Amino acid sequence: MQPWMGVLALEPIEGAPLAGRLLAPEVAERLGELLAMQLGRFLPPAHEYALAWAAAAYDPAQLLRRGLPLHAELTHLFQAGQRAGLAAGQILTLSAREGRMPTAVLEPDAALGDGRLYVVPVVVLGDEAAIEAASQTLETVLMDEGLADPRIVGELSQASGARFEHARWLSLTDLAAMMAAQLTHVGMAPAWALLEELLYAEEPEPMAVDTALGQWITLEGEAVRLAVEPYAAFAARHPEETPDERVQAWLARIHEQRQYAALLGAHGITLDFATEAPARIVEGCLVDRRANGEPATALVHAHRSLGPVAITLADARGQVLEHRQPLSAEALRAQLAALQGAGLTITQPGTVATVADGSELAGPGPCPVQ
User: Fold this and answer.
1) How far apart are CA 163 and CA 193, in angstroms?
2) How far from 148 is each of 10, 20, 59, 179, 180, CA to CA, in Å?
3) Which residue, 279, 284, 356, 361, has most beta carbons within 10 Å?
């Protein structure tokens, strides 16, 4: 059987998050009947349909991943159930037992946290002609008549402990269009260009996009890479700016890098990083090596909103050995743990320190006399 893929989109009233992401089996069974009843009113009567859905609330990003994994899993589980008698006219409700969904794919991703929009994934199944007819109808009618029935909203409100500002049916295509519009609104349209290619292309075409701050992200195969450069290289390209302006512009780029890494990560895409020699990427850090020697002191450069952004190592005489820019939270934690484990003298002034002309990051200075 072929699937039509859609969602029930839920937008809680601000300040009223869901008490939990999983619906109890008894609630799920009641809801399954209500969902099928409402969708059935929209479907062409000349065909037979089945319904499969997951009784849980997800962040939209978990659905919009390469291969559309949740909808693919619902389709697969229904098709597997056909061997046990599932057929057109029936509902497959997949709900939690003892706090766990039936498969790992259907577990809500706890790392995505609580957002402003949750979605319940649904597939309508039928033969090829039935799904073609359903798709044509649903893509049109849901825009005008897609508000969820009051009984559905009532069940969900009671089960989740939340009140909903909006609850409506969307095709997965409509959900993707909504996400694209939101990213464009916040200046991250290039991210959607990458996501769209990875979502829908069987073999993604190579491409490159330019972010709002002029950073290049490339797609090659399924690998997504962002080009980064050390602070000194960035400062050399902006000689007309004051030292403070350079630092602020560099911090803005780091903020943008983190935004893209978080957004793509939510969609199941790891953002890799690339740089040009002599800089290197080592253990998740952008490393700008300046001299050989044994590190004795470290200066942790930080920003009040971004937290630590770089680490400068120096020897006992104060000579700068290298600057390191951790490119992920994991790399930062590993670097700080390594510094503490090595017994280095660590200075954390709570700001980004540069040399007087702002051309490069400052070092921590010599070790204090013991």
Assistant:
1) 34
2) 9, 20, 19, 20, 23
3) 361
Q: Are 123 and 52 in contact (CB under 8 A)?
A: yes
pLDDT digits over 234-270, tens only? 999 999 999 999 999 999 999 999 999 999 999 999 9
Residue 53, number of CB atoms within 10 A of its CB: 26
Inter-residue contact 332 to 326 (CB < 8 Å) = yes
Q: Give me the pLDDT at residue 17, please.
A: 74
Q: What is the DSSP string of 114-175?
A: --S-EEEEEEEEE-HHHHHHHHHHHHHHHHHH-BPPHHHHHHHHHHHT--EEEEEEEEHHHH
Tell me how far apart the alpha carbons of residues 25 and 70 are, in angstroms, rounded to a whole number. Answer: 19
Distance (Å) of CA 161 to CA 24, 153, 164: 13, 11, 10
Report pLDDT digits (tens) over 86-144. Answer: 888 899 999 999 999 999 999 999 899 777 899 999 999 999 999 999 999 998 899 88
CB contact set of 174 (below 8 Å; sequence gap of 6+): 139, 142, 143
The pLDDT value given to residue 144: 87
Q: Tokens representing 125?
A: 């199944």
Question: Hey, which residues does 354 pair with through a beta bridge?
Answer: 361
Q: What is the distance between the alpha carbons of residues 72 and 81, in angstroms, rounded to a whole number?
A: 14
The angle formed by the CA atoms of residues 327, 278 and 273, to the nearest 5 degrees, is 25
* Band (20; pLDDT cuts 50, 70, 90): confident
* Residue-level length of the chain: 370
Burial class (CB in 10 A: 0-12, 13-18, 19+), 70: buried
- Report d(CA 368, CA 316) in Å as an integer: 9
